[in-house]
Request: fold
Amino acid sequence: MAQVVLENIYKSFPLRQGEPEKATNSEAESVSPEAPSSTSNTVLRRINLTVEDGEFMVLVGPSGCGKSTLLRSIAGLEVLTAGNIWVGDRLVNDLPPKDRDIAMVFQNYALYPHLTVYDNLAFGLRRSEREKKEEGRRKREEGRGKREEGRGKKVEARRKKVEAINDNRQGEERKFEKPEEIKNKVEEVLNYLASHTLNKERIYPLFEDFLVGITRNFPPGLRYFSEREKAVGKRVLKVAQLLQIEPLLNRLPKQLSGGQKQRVALGRAMARNPEVFLMDEPLSNLDAKLRAETRSQIVQLQRQLGTTTIYVTHDQTEAMTMGDRIAIMNAGQLQQVAQPLELYNKPANLFVAEFIGSPPMNFLPVQFTAPLLISHPQFRFTLPDIWAKNLQQYDGRGLILGIRPEHLSIHPPATKNLSVQVEIVEALGHETYLRVCLTDAPAVRMQVRVPPERSIRVGEELWLAIAHDKIHLFDPDTELAIFPR
Ligand SMILES: Nc1ncnc2c1ncn2[C@@H]1O[C@H](COP(=O)(O)OP(=O)(O)OP(=O)(O)O)[C@@H](O)[C@H]1O
Ligand SMILES: [Mg+2]
Reply:
């Protein structure tokens, strides 16, 4: 498991096809990645993000804001224009995808069409085992290379000994006088062979792989399961049970529905137990019920495995319920990274305020008069004292007032309340959403969430009270939030 650190990430795509991408940091540094360019389109800008070890980070943002590009860059499928990506203490910028120990579930998932669901799930596991073995072998060989020098003399001595044996054989017509002598010679040759070719550690697994491979399509009783394959099977079964795809294990991908395929793709990544999971909208093909179920299964599995996860979604409910933290992106830039409720309670700017919350926050331009008066042609009210200090500099200036639909309620007429006319009523059963316009300014529209008991007709005139302790204020020039105290 590992922390993922993104440091000053930039990514540009060439505007014209066939134009080469900037490939290295040094190249990128010579021209500032901030500089506007007529030949490339910068889709990621100055991304700095630390995903803690074992954290579930959700990445949300509108279509085209760069979420998939960022995920693909972390996985090693895109070359960065500038910046660094760390996985644990490894700088992975120049590592190929397979060496990053990252599993990614793509927006357009792909399963191996000729393998059953079981083998699709097991594929990554077997591969990662093989890769670990390869790695181990490479390291052993490197070590061997270093030892080789020291062993050079021994090898030379052994070679001379074997030559001497051969010379003796020729001279003595290959006859040995004493059984003792024969035994010694045989032992000598066996030792020589054992130290050079009969390496059990390498031959046994190859033989086992061969047996597992040729008996794979045999009936279960005749299949050969190596110890390793048994461990793979156990893990496949656990993931399959969690994602409810156990009954599908013997099917081929073409025999699955879109949603089932998506869960198999998800399971394949999870079964591998990598250091980092990257998931790009893995639930988009599921129906609402399955989506909710799979959502909690993923969270449960992630908590059990403790694998650092970056999860991309459009879905607010998914973001709010799954993430330890949420990173909100717009136009290639991070807007705010925080825990779900902090984003809802303290959005850092207008974009986040509108993006988080459903239906979205309402915005009205208002005038501010120190110390605490907010006024609009249709209403005026006094803010709680906690605002006085941070609003001093805005005396006599305009502000943007933000009010969530759930912080408006139906009340009797008053100067601090808004007079509105109902345009649309959306009764959902457990609550009702109203779309209203200001009675004296019909072009200004707002959304209101009201309890379902109150029956409301289209065209009805209402007075709405604002929960003054729940309002949000934004600087109209910078669009940044102003916080009380
Ligand atoms: N290979 C490419 N060449 C040129 N432009 C690209 C390439 N891939 C992506 N883009 C552009 O980069 C921007 C970000 O794309 P990306 O796929 O990362 O968005 P996204 O946030 O994942 O959107 P969605 O939510 O629709 O999947 C888009 O404007 C897209 O057109
Ligand atoms: Mg995408």
About this structure: The chain has a mean pLDDT of 84. The radius of gyration is 33 Å. The pocket of adenosine-5'-triphosphate (ligand 1) is lined by residues 13, 43, 61, 63-69, 107 (CB under 6 Å).
